[in-house]
């Protein structure tokens, strides 16, 4: 069954010139990029995107981080796209959870600045794609 997932290369990934690396892995996996855009994120979009974390100790710092520089926003499509992109990304903590060979496992050290985002369910994918790409 074909799915779509939101893909973000976060400000740390963009600053470290890892956009090409991330998009290349998505394409090599067999997923199709159906939208790609470099975006500056305002606080309102950031807060909506991370609404499920509102109230957590790291929420404010997360908003500061995600609005600190340009973000690459994309939509990838293919069979099991949501799980496939999360597999490529690796677990949230790049050292304790992300396997070597994943983007976070290969390039990350910090839990907040962990390079990429991927939707975690069909429900969040639908919500996030509507938020970032309302015309898609
Ligand atoms: P995910 O991005 O792997 O789906 P979530 O738990 O949904 O992980 O968290 C969203 C983002 O919030 C993470 O990617 C990371 O940037 C940040 N984050 C999550 N947990 C922590 C934490 O304990 N400290 C700092 N930042 C965190």
Automatic annotation (TrEMBL):
Gene3D superfamilies: Nucleoside diphosphate kinase-like domain
Record keywords: ATP-binding, Cytoplasm, Kinase, Magnesium, Metal-binding, Nucleotide metabolism, Nucleotide-binding, Phosphoprotein, Transferase
PROSITE patterns (alphabetical): NDPK, NDPK_LIKE
Matching InterPro entries: NDK-like_dom, NDK-like_dom_sf, Nucleoside_diP_kinase, Nucleoside_diP_kinase_AS
Enzyme's top EC category: transferase
Protein's UniProt keywords contain Cytoplasm: yes
Compartment list: Cytoplasm
Keyword flag Ribosomal protein: no
SUPFAM superfamilies associated with the record: Nucleoside diphosphate kinase, NDK
The reaction(s) this protein catalyses: a ribonucleoside 5'-diphosphate + ATP = a ribonucleoside 5'-triphosphate + ADP; a 2'-deoxyribonucleoside 5'-diphosphate + ATP = a 2'-deoxyribonucleoside 5'-triphosphate + ADP
Biological role: Major role in the synthesis of nucleoside triphosphates other than ATP. The ATP gamma phosphate is transferred to the NDP beta phosphate via a ping-pong mechanism, using a phosphorylated active-site intermediate.
Family, per entry: Belongs to the NDK family.
Name this protein carries in UniProt: Nucleoside diphosphate kinase
The species this protein was found in: Pseudonocardia oroxyli
